[in-house]
Amino acid sequence: MKPRPRDYIQHFLQRLETNETVILRDHKDNLLLPIFPFFQLVHVVNLEVTIELILQFEIAMKGVFIRVDGFLTLTIAEQDYSEDDVRRLSINLFEKMRF
To answer: 35-93 pLDDT, tens per residue?
Structure first.
């Protein structure tokens, strides 16, 4: 059974909090790459699709998202960083987001 939209959102926010705890405790040397202001998610019409794309972004980049200074920020080990991949996935995400 697919989670209801509110459950889906709550699960995503809990995931961000868990990621923040783990990253800040165990992976302090990871790169922090701000992707977009977190508050923009409030204005997204297709939030479920956007969250799914964010989760796919994490998998593709072998990183996780956290909130840092008001931004949804990708954290990634330096050896896994590819500027071209981050750019490509960011553009894909922005093109699919509907406001």
So the answer is: 999 999 999 999 999 999 999 999 999 999 999 999 999 999 999 999 999 999 999 99
Q: Which residues of 27-38 are buried (b: 16+ CB within 10 A; e: fewer)?
A: eeebeebebeeb
Which positions ≥6 away from 97 have C-beta within 8 Å?
Answer: 40, 44, 46, 50
Write down the pTM of the prediction: 0.89
Neighbours of 4 (CB within 10 A): 9
What is d(CA 82, CA 61) in angstroms, rounded to the nearest whole number? 8
Cα–Cα distance, 78 to 98 (Å, whole number): 31
Q: How many angstroms separate the CA atoms of 80 and 65, rounded?
A: 15
